[in-house]
Write a structure and sequence with these properties.
769 residues, mainly alpha, 66% helix, elongated
Length: 769
C-alpha cells in the first residue's frame, strides 16, 4: 500500500472534455484512451456524474459499470487533491444506487476506492477547503453497504491518516503498554502516551474530526453482524481513540455503548480485546481526567457501556488490572451526577465492585484469578481506594444497600485481612500498601457508623470491635491510624449500649488508658490523637457502669485531670465536657476531690478550675478590678468554658474547698456560683439588642418584661459585687484583727521582759531564749 503523504504532482497532460447539454453517447467522449505511463489523463468528472444522475441514463447500470471501471484504471496512478470532491460525490451517488438494488456497481466502486489508497495530498490545500473531511465522510458512508472489502479499504485509509501503520497490527491502537499494567501509578498518564503522529498527521486528525467518520463508523458497527467487518472497524476506532479530540467524538456518538453491546453478544477474544483497548484509551487520556471529556462521558452514554464492561466475565488476568483502575475511576467521578448514580445503583454497581474487596474469592469472576492476582488488584493497585471512596462519598444512598447485601461483612473481612498483615513485622511484602489501606477502610466504616444506631449495632454484631482493638494495641501503626480508630470507637459506642459492652468485653478501656499519656514531637499530631482519646472516652466509656469502673480502676480520672492541666485551651474544653459526663457516676467525684495538680501538690481541682475561669476571663477581656470584683454589672459574663466549670462546681459543691481558698479565689467563686443568673441575663440582653438592631419595638407588656429581666440581672450582679466587696472587707478586717492581736502579744511580752529585769526572775522560757 502506498503511503498517504504529500507528493509532487506528476500529471503531464489531459484531454479536452466534450461539452453539450445532452449526455455523451460514446464512452470515449468521457474516458480517454490510455497513454504512456508518463502521462496521467484527466477526467471530466462533471460529465461522468451527469451520466450517473441524468434522467436519461440514470438507470443504465451496465454503462455506469463500464465508466466506473475505466475511471478505476485511470486513478491507479494516484488521486489528486482537486479530484477528491468529485470522487466523493461519485461514491455517494453509487451508494444510493446500490442501496436501491444496483448491486452491480459494488465491484467498480471497490476498485475506485482501492485506487484512493494512493492519494497525493497537499496539506495546506486539504485543510483550507476541507477536502479530506468531505472525502472521508463520503467513503465512510459506504460502510453501510456491508461489503467486507470496502470496509477493509476504508479502515485502511482512515488508520493511515490517523498515523497508524496498518489495521492488521494489534499493538498499533493501544495508548499504553500492557506490560506496564501492574504498576501503581495514578490513572492520569498523558505523559506516557506514545503518539505516532507528525505535523501532517495532526492536521489530518482535525479533518477526521470535522468529517462524519466517527458517526458513520458508529452506524455501521450497530448494523454490521459480520465478525470480520466488526474487527476491522473496531481496529479503526481503536486507532482513533488514541487521540483526545477524537475520543470526545467517540463518546458523543455513542460508540462505547455500541461496542459494549457487541462485546456482550460475542465470545470472540479479538473483539473483546479491541473493545477493552478502546475503553482503555477513552478513559486514559488527559482530556478525560481534566474534566472536558469526562463531562461528556458522564452526561452522555459513556457510563453505561463502561459499567456493562465490568460484567463481562472473560475480562480477567494480568492485562485487566489497569483497565479496572480506569473503570472504577470513571464510576467514582461519574457518580456525582444523580441520574448516572441512580443508573449504576439500579443495575447492581455494588455487586460489581464489592467482589474486589472480597477475601474468600466466592465471586465467579474472582475464581478465574489466582490469589496472587487477586491480591494484586486489591492491594498493588489503587482500586480498593476508589471503591471505598465511592462508598464513603455516597454512603447516605448506599448504606441500606450495603447492609442488605452483606456489604458490611465484606468491609469487616477486608479490614481483618489488612490488620492481619499489617500488625506483623513490617518487612513483609505488601505491608506498606496495607498500611495505606487500613485508614481508608476505617474512614469508610466511620461513614457508615454515622448513619444511625441501627447501622452501628450491625457493625458491632458483625465483629468490627476485635479489629479496632487490635489496631489500638498494635505499635506498628502511625498516629493517624490510631486517631481514626479512636474516633470510630467513639462513634460506634455513641448512644449504643450494646457496642459499649462489646468495647469493654474486648478490654477496650485498658487499651485506651496509655493514650492519655500520648506524646509526639509534632504538636498538631499530639493534639489530634488526644482529642480522639477524649472523644473515645465520651462515646465508649461514659454511660456504661462496667466500663466506668474499669476506667476508675485504671486511674483514668487522675490521668484525665493531669492531661487537663497541661492541655491547650481547645482540648481543655473537650476534657471538661467529658469529665462532666463522668461526674454522673458518684465515684468520679471522689477521684476528683483527691486529685492534686502536678505543678503544686497543695492545689486541688477547685483551685485549678478557679484559675481556669480567671484565665478565660483575661482572654475574653471581662471587666474586673485587681481584686477580681466584677465591674460591668450589665454584662458580667463572657466565654463558653464558664458553663462547664459551673456545672462541675454544681457536681463538686460550691462549699467544697472554700476553707483553703484565698480571698481572691473566694471572690471568684462567688461570681461562679451566680453563673446561671448571669447567663439568663446575657440571653435577655441579646434579645433586646437584636430587637433594637431590627428596629422592632415590642408592645408595652413585652417591653416591660424585657426591662424587668434586665433590671433583675443587674441587681443580682450588683448583689454579687457587694458580696465580693464584703468578702474583701471581711478579709481585710480579719487581717487587721490578726495584726492587732500580734502587736498586743508582742507588747505583753515586752512588758513582762521589762519586769523580770528588776526581779531577776526568768519565768518565761521564751523570753529567756
Amino acid at each position: 500500500m502506498a503511503a498517504l503523504q504529500p507528493a509532487p504532482r506528476v500529471r503531464t497532460g489531459a484531454l479536452d472534455p466534450l461539452s453539450g447539454p445532452k449526455p455523451p453517447s460514446d464512452l470515449r467522449d468521457i474516458m480517454p484512451d490510455f497513454r504512456p505511463a508518463s502521462a496521467v489523463p484527466a477526467v471530466d468528472y462533471e460529465k461522468l456524474i451527469s451520466v450517473l444522475t441524468s434522467k436519461h441514463t440514470c438507470n443504465m447500470f451496465d454503462r455506469h459499470v463500464a465508466i466506473l471501471e475505466k475511471l478505476a484504471k485511470v486513478l491507479r496512478g494516484g488521486v489528486e487533491m482537486q479530484d477528491f470532491q468529485f470522487i466523493g460525490d461519485i461514491f455517494m451517488i453509487c451508494r444510493e444506487k446500490i442501496l436501491s438494488g444496483a448491486a452491480i456497481l459494488e465491484c467498480p466502486v471497490v476498485r475506485i476506492l482501492s485506487a484512493c489508497r494512493n492519494m497525493r495530498l497537499d496539506t495546506n490545500e486539504a485543510c483550507e477547503n476541507r477536502a479530506i473531511a468531505n472525502f472521508l465522510s463520503s467513503i465512510t458512508a459506504l460502510l453501510c453497504l456491508k461489503n467486507l472489502e470496502i470496509c477493509e479499504i476504508v479502515s485502511e485509509i482512515i488508520v493511515c491518516l490517523a498515523g497508524g501503520a496498518s489495521t492488521d497490527l494489534d499493538a498499533d491502537g493501544r495508548v499504553f503498554n500492557k506490560a506496564a499494567s501492574l504498576n501503581n501509578s495514578p490513572p492520569i498518564m498523558l505523559d506516557k502516551i506514545k503518539t505516532k503522529s507528525n505535523t501532517a498527521n495532526d492536521e489530518w486528525i482535525v479533518q477526521i474530526k470535522q468529517s462524519d467518520t466517527v458517526m458513520n463508523l458508529a452506524r455501521a458497527l450497530e448494523t454490521q453482524k459480520d465478525l470480520q467487518s466488526r474487527r476491522t472497524m473496531l481496529r479503526t476506532v481503536r486507532r482513533l481513540s488514541t487521540y483526545q479530540t477524537l475520543c470526545h467524538e467517540i463518546i458523543y456518538e455513542g460508540l462505547l455503548e455500541i461496542i459494549a453491546d457487541i462485546m456482550r453478544e460475542t465470545n470472540d477474544s479479538s473483539i473483546l480485546n479491541l473493545g477493552i483497548d478502546i475503553l482503555w484509551n477513552s478513559l486514559s487520556l488527559d482530556g478525560f481526567a481534566s474534566g472536558t471529556l469526562l463531562a461528556s462521558f458522564r452526561e452522555g452514554s459513556g457510563i453505561y457501556p463502561t459499567y456493562h464492561m465490568t460484567t463481562i466475565d472473560t475480562m480477567f488476568g494480568q492485562e485487566d488490572y489497569q483497565l479496572k483502575r480506569l473503570l472504577v475511576f470513571a464510576f467514582t467521578w461519574a457518580s456525582g451526577d444523580p441520574g448516572t448514580f441512580q443508573y449504576l445503583l439500579e443495575n447492581g454497581i455494588m455487586g460489581s465492585l464489592m467482589p474486589y474487596l472480597a477475601v474468600h474469592r466466592e465471586a465467579e469472576l474472582l475464581k478465574r484469578w489466582s490469589p496472587q492476582q487477586l491480591e494484586g488488584i486489591q492491594i498493588q493497585t489503587y482500586v480498593h481506594q476508589k471503591i471505598l471512596g465511592f462508598i464513603r462519598h455516597n454512603i447516605s444512598r448506599l448504606a441500606n444497600v450495603l447492609e442488605s447485601s452483606q456489604g458490611y461483612s465484606v468491609l469487616i473481612d477486608f479490614l481483618e485481612r489488612a490488620v492481619d498483615r499489617s500488625c506483623h513485622k513490617m518487612y513483609m511484602p505488601g505491608v506498606e500498601d496495607l498500611l495505606q489501606l487500613v485508614p481508608t477502610v476505617l474512614r469508610t466504616i466511620l461513614s457508615i457508623s454515622g448513619m444511625g444506631s441501627s447501622h452501628r449495632v450491625a457493625l458491632g454484631e458483625l465483629g468490627v470491635w476485635p479489629q479496632l482493638l487490635r489496631i489500638i494495641k498494635c505499635e506498628n501503626y502511625p498516629p493517624e491510624v490510631w486517631r481514626i480508630t479512636l474516633l470510630l470507637c467513639s462513634s460506634l459506642g455513641s448512644s449504643c449500649d450494646s457496642n459499649k459492652r462489646l468495647f469493654g468485653s474486648y478490654d477496650g478501656v485498658e487499651a485506651l488508658i496509655p493514650f492519655l499519656k500520648f506524646h509526639s514531637a509534632d504538636p498538631q499530631e499530639r493534639e489530634a490523637v488526644l482529642f480522639s482519646v477524649i472523644e473515645c472516652i465520651w462515646g465508649a466509656v461514659c454511660g456504661d457502669q462496667l466500663n466506668e469502673d474499669a476506667f476508675f480502676k485504671s486511674r483514668g480520672v487522675y490521668l484525665m485531670l493531669d492531661l487537663l492541666e497541661r492541655s491547650s485551651h481547645t482540648l481543655q474544653q473537650h476534657i471538661l465536657g467529658t469529665l462532666l459526663d463522668l461526674m454522673e457516676n458518684p465515684k468520679t467525684r471522689m477521684h476528683a476531690m483527691e486529685w492534686r495538680t502536678v505543678a503544686d501538690v497543695k492545689k486541688t481541682l477547685v483551685h485549678f478550675l478557679i484559675d481556669l475561669w480567671q484565665k478565660e476571663e483575661l482572654i475574653l477581656g471581662v471587666q474586673q478590678n485587681a481584686q477580681g470584683i466584677i465591674e460591668d454589672t450589665v454584662a458580667p459574663l463572657m466565654g463558653d468554658i464558664h458553663a462547664k466549670i459551673y456545672s462541675l462546681f454544681c457536681k463538686l459543691g460550691f462549699e467544697y474547698g472554700s476553707d483553703i481558698l484565698n480571698v481572691r479565689e473566694q471572690v471568684q467563686l462567688s461570681a461562679i456560683s451566680k453563673f446561671l443568673d448571669f447567663k439568663i441575663g446575657e440571653v435577655w440582653n441579646e434579645i433586646a439588642a437584636e430587637l433594637d438592631w431590627e428596629g422592632t419595638y415590642p408592645v408595652s407588656p413585652d417591653m416591660s418584661c424585657v426591662r424587668a429581666a434586665k433590671m433583675v440581672i443587674t441587681e443580682k450582679a450588683k448583689a454579687v459585687q457587694q458580696q465580693q466587696i464584703g468578702l474583701i472587707e471581711q478579709n481585710a478586717e480579719h487581717r487587721r484583727n490578726e495584726e492587732d492581736q500580734f502587736y498586743q502579744s508582742v507588747k505583753e511580752r515586752n512588758s513582762m521582759k521589762h519586769r523580770t529585769q528588776f526581779t531577776g526572775a526568768a519565768t518565761d522560757p521564751i523570753l529567756e531564749a
